[in-house]
């Protein structure tokens, strides 16, 4: 249980070269911001987080229970990317640490990269350009194809998969897709009843699944064996999804005509670190350093979006689009005080909170609440500041995870 009151100004730490617009936005909102160009190991990051309320990371920083236990001032983590599997979400939730990400901001960038790679692999451009650099003129149509009329199989039909579906149809591809969730088809795309069905009909297979533990090892020998002769394989989702050694075997055997891989089971921690993979040196294989969402446009949008969510949470209690806490989208405060209360999701909590307010003669002029799993969240705007004795009684309730109060002048909008 915490009644938190971060220092003024609250401190934020941004790692991994997050776009400068994030730091600018947080400073404008009144935060003291430090930036760091790379990820940090657990011990280094624990030291760096002392006194830090907001942490911004990308995919190479791991947030563990040990780190969360040591970072007692930490209130929120912003993943300036799509994935959040680098954060122990269950532990963060139990401690009341909010986690935000950018589920939509870089979808177009990933889609454009995948479309470009599909064209390049179909025309065998990696081989052509390599020979030109070696001084070899190989003007031949052997193995080169148009993508028009071919079938793209999309595995994972979420934000990226659906946008890829739309763009792919626009350039003449037929689209089939498979997703474990019941998602509506876009355009003329056809839903497949199973992954196996998709693999048997697709000329190109593109993975767009998330990083949940159940997806580890999703694509291995059995799946590659089902793919069509001379098919193309693309993975711009998660490195742990694919068996890279088996993929290598299918490229070398000639079963697959090419592959484009942007994510790897083990990735270097910092710019310039050595990169090792069994896929290096293979014919008609494109390897990129996890840059699917790394365009200036996407990174700027991500920086703006996630920093706004972080600032809105700490400065006003807004949890809209949090990936782990109950989502409450808050309007401007309607009274003289705002009380945000995160608690265990058990019966009777709301009645108890309102009873304490009523006993103290405090009128609630606006109230917003939601639950998520084992956690509940209620935000109350009151007509005058809540007495310290009432807050103390709330803190003492066994269901309390944390409690925070603001005056209207303290509450800022997300920008």
UniProtKB/TrEMBL annotation:
- One MF term from GO for this chain? NAD binding
Q: Which GO terms describe its biological process?
A: L-serine biosynthetic process
Q: Which residues form the ACT domain?
A: 338-409
Catalysed reaction per UniProt?
(2R)-3-phosphoglycerate + NAD(+) = 3-phosphooxypyruvate + NADH + H(+); (R)-2-hydroxyglutarate + NAD(+) = 2-oxoglutarate + NADH + H(+)
Q: Which Pfam family would be a valid example here?
A: ACT_AHAS_ss
Give the EC number(s) under which this enzyme is classified.
1.1.1.399, 1.1.1.95
Sorted alphabetically, the keyword list is:
Amino-acid biosynthesis, NAD, Oxidoreductase, Serine biosynthesis
List, alphabetically, the PROSITE patterns matched. Answer: ACT (PS51671), D_2_HYDROXYACID_DH_1 (PS00065), D_2_HYDROXYACID_DH_3 (PS00671)
Tell me the route in metabolism or biology where this protein functions.
Answer: Amino-acid biosynthesis; L-serine biosynthesis; L-serine from 3-phospho-D-glycerate: step 1/3
Keyword field contains Ribonucleoprotein: no
> Top enzyme class of this protein?
oxidoreductase
Family note: Belongs to the D-isomer specific 2-hydroxyacid dehydrogenase family.
Could you tell me what this protein does?
Answer: Catalyzes the reversible oxidation of 3-phospho-D-glycerate to 3-phosphonooxypyruvate, the first step of the phosphorylated L-serine biosynthesis pathway. Also catalyzes the reversible oxidation of 2-hydroxyglutarate to 2-oxoglutarate.
| Name of the protein in its database record | D-3-phosphoglycerate dehydrogenase
**Organism of this sequence:** Nostocoides japonicum T1-X7
Q: Which gene encodes it?
A: serA
């Amino acid at each position: 249980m915490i009644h938190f009151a971060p220092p003024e100004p609250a401190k934020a730490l941004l790692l991994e070269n997050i776009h400068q617009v994030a730091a600018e936005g947080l400073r404008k909102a009144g935060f003291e911001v430090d930036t760091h160009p790379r990820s940090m190991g657990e011990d280094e990051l624990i030291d760096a987080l002392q006194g830090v309320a907001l942490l911004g990371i990308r995919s190479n920083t791991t947030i563990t229970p040990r780190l969360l236990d040591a970072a007692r001032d930490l209130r929120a983590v912003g993943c300036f990317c799509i994935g959040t599997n680098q954060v122990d979400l269950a532990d963060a939730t139990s401690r009341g640490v909010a986690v935000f990400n950018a589920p939509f901001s870089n979808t177009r960038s990933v889609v454009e990269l995948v479309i470009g790679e599909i064209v390049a692999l179909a025309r065998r451009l990696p081989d052509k350009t390599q020979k030109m650099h070696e001084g070899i003129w190989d003007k031949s149509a052997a193995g080169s194809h148009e993508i028009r009329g071919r079938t793209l199989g999309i595995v994972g039909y979420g934000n990226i998969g659906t946008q890829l579906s739309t763009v792919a149809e626009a350039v003449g591809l037929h689209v089939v897709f498979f997703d474990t969730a019941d998602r509506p088809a876009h355009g003329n795309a056809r839903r497949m009843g199973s992954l196996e069905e998709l693999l048997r009909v697709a000329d190109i297979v593109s993975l767009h699944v998330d990083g949940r533990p159940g997806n580890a090892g999703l694509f291995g020998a059995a799946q590659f064996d089902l793919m069509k002769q001379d098919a193309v394989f693309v993975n711009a989702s998660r490195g742990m999804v694919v068996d890279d050694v088996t993929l290598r075997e299918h490229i070398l055997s000639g079963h697959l005509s090419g592959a484009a891989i942007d994510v790897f089971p083990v990735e270097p921690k910092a710019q310039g670190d050595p990169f090792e993979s069994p896929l290096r040196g293979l014919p008609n294989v494109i390897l990129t350093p996890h840059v699917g969402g790394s365009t200036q446009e996407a990174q700027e949008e991500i920086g703006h979006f996630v920093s706004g969510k972080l600032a809105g949470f700490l400065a006003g209690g807004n949890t809209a689009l949090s990936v782990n806490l109950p989502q409450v989208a808050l309007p401007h405060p309607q009274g003289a005080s705002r009380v945000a209360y995160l608690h265990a999701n058990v019966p009777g909590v709301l009645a108890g909170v309102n009873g304490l307010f009523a006993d103290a003669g405090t009128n609630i002029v606006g109230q917003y609440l939601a639950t998520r799993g084992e956690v509940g969240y209620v935000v109350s705007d009151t007509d005058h500041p809540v007495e310290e004795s009432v807050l103390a009684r709330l803190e003492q309730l066994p269901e309390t995870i944390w409690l925070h109060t603001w005056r209207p002048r303290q509450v800022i909008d997300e920008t």
